[in-house]
Specification:
The complex is a heterodimer of chains A (98) and B (469). Chain A is an alpha+beta fold. Helix content of chain A is 27%, strand content 38%. In chain A, the strands form two sheets. In chain A, strands 1-2-6-3 form a four-stranded antiparallel sheet. A two-stranded antiparallel ribbon of chain A has the order 4-5. Chain B has 469 residues and is an alpha+beta fold. In chain B, 49% of the residues lie in helices and 17% in strands. The longest helix of chain B is centred in the middle third of the chain and has 35 residues. Chain B starts with a strand and ends with a helix. The relative contact order of chain B is 0.09. Classes of the chains: A alpha+beta (98), B alpha+beta (469). Chains A and B meet through helix 2 of A and loops of B.
Chain lengths: 98, 469
C-alpha cells in the first residue's frame, strides 16, 4: 500500500525539465513505479501546497551500458511524472538555492 | 559605482572605487557560466546549466574570488574614464577589500611627470667644430693606398708587413727530436700575428733570407695559454719558402682614377676626401654637442615623477634582457646562477639607467611641447619618399602595394621628430635658436596655408618612447 510520502521520489533536474518549469510551468518528478496519476496529484498538492491541473506520466525505458567493455550494466526503468500547476503556483524546491 | 580620487605626492593619485552589489552579482554569474563550460553537470550539456543550478556547485566566496580580477579591471577602466585620468603607465591595484559590502578596490596610478625645464634657452656652449688638418687627410690617403696596395712575390729578405709562407720545426729545451713540425704556414709579419707558434715569432722573422734555414730562439711567456709550455725556452728552425711584399701605389692621378672613376686628378680625390671627412667630423661633433646640451637641460630641469614609472621601465628593460637571453637559450635563473647575482641586485643595477630614461623621456616630451616642434603629413611623406629613393624605390609603387602602413609611418615620424629635436638642441646650444613667439607664428601661418588645424603633438608620446637624445 503506497502512502502519499512514497509516491514522489525526487525532482528531475535536467536541461529539459528546467525548460519545462521555466517556460511551460510544468514540474517533473521521478515517482514510484506503481504510482497512479491521482496519487501523484494528491501527493504534490499535499506536499507542496499547490493546485495541480494535469498530470502526464511516462515509464522511462531501461537502458544498458557496459563497464570495461565486457560487463553489461542495466539501468532500471522508472516512472516520470510531469505535473501542471495552476497559474500563480510554484514549487520552491525547483527554484534552487536562494 | 562610487569613486574617490586622492592626489598623492610625486605625481601619483590614489583611486578608491566602491563597486555596487548588483555589478558584483552580475560578475559572479558571468564567472559561473564561464567555469561551467568545462564542467559536467548531470542532466545538462556543458555550459547549459542555469545559474541557480550552478550555485549548488560553487561557493559564494569562490565565485567572488574568481570574479575579482575582471571586476577590478572593469572598475579601473570606468574610474579612469569617469574621472578623466590619463595614467602614464598601467596602474597598480594596491588593496582589494572584499570582506565588507560594497566591496572596495584601491589603485595607485602614476601620472605623466611634471617638468619645469627652467631657462633652458640660456644653455649655451662654445661651438667649435674642429677643422680637418693636412695630416688627417694624409693619414686617410695612406689608408686608401694600403687598401689599393699590390701584393707580389719578392726575392729579398723578410720585412715588416710582408706575407710569408714557411715551414718550421720546433725543439723544446735541449731536445734533439722535433717537438712540432709544420709546413706551408702563412703569416703576416707583424706584432701578435695570427698563426704564429709562439709570441714574437713573426717579428723575429725580419731579415730572414728566402729558401734558407734560420734559427729563432724564443721562450714561451709565463702566462702562456698552454700551461705545460709556459716559461719554457724553445728553438725554431725555420725555412722561409716564399715572401710576398706589399707595394703601395704612387700618389698620382692614376691612383685617384683607380679609387673611383669620378676623380680625374689626385687633387679631386683630396678635395672630395676632405669634404667627406669634414662631414663625418661635423656629424659626430654635432651629435656630441647635442648630447651635451640635452644632458645640461636634463640636469637643470626640475622633474617630479612617480617611482612607478621607474619600476615600469625596469620591467621593460628586463623584458628586453629576457629576449636577449632567450636568443642564447638561457633563462634569467641561469643568468643569476652564472653571475652569482640575485634579482634584487639586478633590479638595483637597472634602476639608475631606468631613472635616466624616465627623466629623458619627460624632458623630451616637454621640450617638444615648449619648442612647438611638430611635423605635418607633407613633411613626413617627403622624408619617407627621400629614404625610399635612397633604397631605389619609388613612393608611388609603395603606395600601390599598400606598404604605407601605420607602423612604418610612425617609425618615420619618430625619426623625423628626433631629427628636428636634435637640430633645435644644436641651435639652442650654439645660441642660434629663433625666438619661441616667432616659432608659434610660423606654425600658425603654416597651418593656415595648409588649411588644417594647428597640429597638436600627436607624435610626442611616440617620440618620448623612442627618442633618447
Amino acid at each position: 500500500m503506497l502512502t502519499m510520502y512514497d509516491v514522489i521520489l525526487r525532482p528531475v533536474v535536467t536541461e529539459k525539465s528546467n525548460y519545462q518549469n521555466g517556460k511551460l510551468h510544468q514540474y517533473v518528478f521521478r515517482v514510484h513505479n506503481e504510482a497512479t496519476k491521482t496519487q501523484i496529484k494528491d501527493a504534490v498538492e499535499k506536499l507542496f501546497n499547490v493546485t495541480v491541473t494535469r498530470v502526464n506520466v511516462a515509464v522511462m525505458p531501461a537502458k544498458s551500458g557496459r563497464r570495461m567493455r565486457r560487463l553489461v550494466v542495466r539501468k532500471a526503468p522508472y516512472k516520470k511524472a510531469v505535473v501542471w500547476l495552476k497559474e500563480g503556483d510554484s514549487i520552491a524546491e525547483f527554484e534552487g538555492v536562494k | 559605482m562610487n569613486i574617490e580620487v586622492n592626489t598623492l605626492e610625486n605625481r601619483e593619485v590614489e583611486i578608491i572605487v566602491h563597486v555596487d552589489d548588483e555589478k558584483v552579482e552580475n560578475a559572479k554569474q558571468v564567472t559561473a557560466r564561464k567555469l561551467s563550460k568545462n564542467m559536467r553537470i548531470p542532466g545538462f550539456r556543458p555550459g547549459k546549466a542555469p545559474y541557480h543550478i550552478l550555485r549548488r556547485y560553487f561557493s559564494d566566496e569562490g565565485l567572488l574570488q574568481e570574479s575579482l580580477e575582471e571586476l577590478a579591471q572593469e572598475a579601473y577602466r570606468t574610474a579612469l574614464e569617469k574621472e578623466s585620468i590619463v595614467p602614464a603607465v598601467p596602474g597598480n591595484l594596491t588593496d582589494a577589500n572584499v570582506q565588507e559590502r560594497p566591496i572596495r578596490f584601491t589603485y595607485k596610478v602614476a601620472l605623466s611627470p611634471e617638468v619645469d625645464l627652467g631657462d633652458y634657452r640660456s644653455i649655451q656652449f662654445p661651438y667649435e667644430l674642429p677643422e680637418i688638418s693636412e695630416s688627417d687627410l694624409d693619414a686617410e690617403i695612406e689608408k686608401l693606398r694600403k687598401e689599393h696596395s699590390v701584393i707580389a712575390e719578392v726575392s729579398r729578405p723578410v720585412e715588416a708587413g710582408d706575407l710569408v709562407t714557411l715551414a718550421y720545426k720546433s725543439y723544446l729545451d735541449g731536445d734533439d727530436e722535433a717537438w712540432e713540425e709544420e709546413n706551408d704556414v702563412e703569416l703576416t709579419v707583424e706584432e701578435n700575428a695570427e698563426n704564429e707558434p709562439a709570441p714574437g715569432f713573426a717579428i723575429a722573422l725580419i731579415g730572414a733570407e728566402p729558401n734558407s734555414e734560420t734559427t729563432i730562439n724564443l721562450s714561451y711567456p709565463e702566462d702562456f695559454i698552454n700551461k705545460s709550455l709556459a716559461g719554457q725556452p724553445v728553438k725554431f728552425v725555420v725555412t722561409v719558402q716564399g715572401v710576398k711584399g706589399r707595394s703601395l701605389p704612387a700618389l698620382d692621378d692614376d691612383f685617384a682614377a683607380t679609387v673611383s672613376a669620378d676623380y680625374a686628378t689626385i687633387d679631386d680625390l683630396r678635395d672630395d676626401l676632405r669634404e667627406q671627412l669634414q662631414n663625418h667630423r661635423e656629424q659626430s661633433y654635432n651629435g656630441e654637442f647635442q648630447n651635451k646640451v640635452f644632458q645640461a637641460m636634463r640636469d637643470q630641469a626640475k622633474i617630479v615623477y612617480s617611482s612607478l614609472l621607474v619600476d615600469h621601465e625596469i620591467e621593460h628593460q628586463l623584458e628586453h634582457f629576457d629576449e636577449r637571453l632567450k636568443s642564447s637559450r638561457l633563462s634569467r635563473e641561469d643568468y643569476y646562477r652564472m653571475t652569482g647575482k640575485n634579482e634584487e641586485e639586478h633590479h638595483n643595477e637597472l634602476r639608475e639607467q631606468a631613472e635616466n630614461t624616465v627623466k629623458s623621456n619627460a624632458v623630451v616630451d616637454s621640450f617638444v611641447k615648449a619648442e612647438k616642434i611638430s611635423i605635418d603629413d607633407a613633411e613626413l611623406l617627403e622624408s619617407y619618399g627621400t629614404r625610399l629613393r635612397g633604397m631605389g624605390i619609388d613612393i608611388s609603387d609603395v603606395e600601390a602595394e599598400g606598404f604605407r602602413s601605420r607602423e612604418i609611418l610612425n617609425y618615420f615620424a619618430t625619426d623625423l621628430l628626433n631629427q628636428k629635436l636634435n637640430e633645435r638642441l644644436l641651435a639652442i646650444g650654439s645660441g642660434k635658436a629663433p625666438a619661441i613667439e616667432m616659432l608659434a607664428q610660423l606654425a600658425n601661418a603654416l597651418s593656415e596655408a595648409v588649411g588644417a588645424e594647428p597640429e597638436e603633438e600627436d607624435e610626442a608620446p611616440v617620440a618620448a618612447d623612442e627618442a633618447d637624445a
